[in-house]
Specification:
The complex is a heterodimer of chains A (111) and B (119). By secondary structure, chain A is mainly beta. Chain A contains no helices and 11 strands. In chain B, the strands form 2 sheets. In chain B, strands 2, 4, 5, 6, 9, 10 and 11 form a 7-stranded mixed β-sheet that branches. A 4-stranded antiparallel β-sheet of chain B has the order 1-3-8-7, with no helix packed on it. In chain B, a hairpin with a 2-residue loop joins β5 and β6. In chain B, 35% of the residues are buried. The model of chain B has no long low-confidence stretch (mean pLDDT 92). The chains are: A mainly beta (111), B mainly beta (119).
Chain lengths: 111, 119
């Protein structure tokens, strides 16, 4: 039973437009959410996080939105750049539990 | 500064053999994590060390898997009697503080992984 779901395996966006990556979760105890970015042959790198006490966190071109009632979060990248092409993983944790990752969404930003 | 390093980058072995995968965390990071990423999946938690002790090994799939961190720095993941289903990328990560302390320097830094192929 997947506790963190990324239902879109892939997404293509034109350079300069907004990329929106979605993530749903089932465990209502999750209170901390993260996005990781992964290039081929490299480990995931931390991108941005949000605590359950907030509904939005912004860092430059990256914004994460959290909707606790819908158990849904999204990552917005604007404007999208070709270097953003990677696999993006959503992850969540509940207090003292390990991170649970989704399956990832492959983003392709087309020049 | 140096990031998390893992050796070997690739390991091919035969079914039934024993393998060891090594992780060198970032210097000063007390927390160390092992994950397994199978094809088309996200990283799956295996085990977490705080210092030398395994604080949480709930993700180890069975007793063929074992990990040590004897001096609180380098860690070795050991797999006995490998099976074809063990084929995956094994990722190691480290953090300054453990994941329990949300938002307090607990960001996990990942190594590039070891790709294990069991024939």
């Amino acid at each position: 039973d997947q506790q963190v779901k990324q239902n879109s395996p892939s997404l293509s966006v034109q350079e300069g437009r907004i990329s929106i990556l979605n993530c749903d979760y089932t465990n209502s105890m999750f209170d901390y959410f993260l996005w990781y970015k992964k290039y081929p042959a490299e480990g995931p790198t931390f991108l941005i996080s949000i605590s359950s006490i907030k509904d939005k966190n912004e860092d430059g071109r990256f914004t994460v939105f959290l909707n606790k009632s819908a158990k849904h979060l999204s990552l917005h990248i604007v404007p999208s750049q070709p270097g953003d092409s990677a696999v993006y993983f959503c992850a969540a944790s509940a207090g003292n539990t390990p991170l649970v990752f989704g399956k990832g969404t492959r983003l392709s930003v087309i020049a | 500064g140096a990031g998390v390093s893992q050796t070997p980058s690739n390991k091919v072995t035969e079914k039934g053999k024993y393998v060891e995968l090594r992780c060198d965390p970032i210097s000063g990071h007390t927390a160390l994590y092992w994950y397994r990423q199978s094809l088309g999946q996200g990283p799956e938690f295996l085990i977490y060390f705080q210092g030398t002790g395994a604080a949480d090994d709930s993700g180890l799939p069975n007793d063929r898997f074992f990990a040590v961190r004897p001096e609180g720095s380098v860690s070795t993941l050991k797999i006995q009697r490998t099976e074809r289903g063990d084929s995956a990328v094994y990722l190691c990560a480290s953090s300054l503080n453990p994941y329990q302390l949300a938002g307090a320097n607990n960001e996990q830094f990942f190594g590039p992984g070891t790709r294990l192929t069991v024939l």
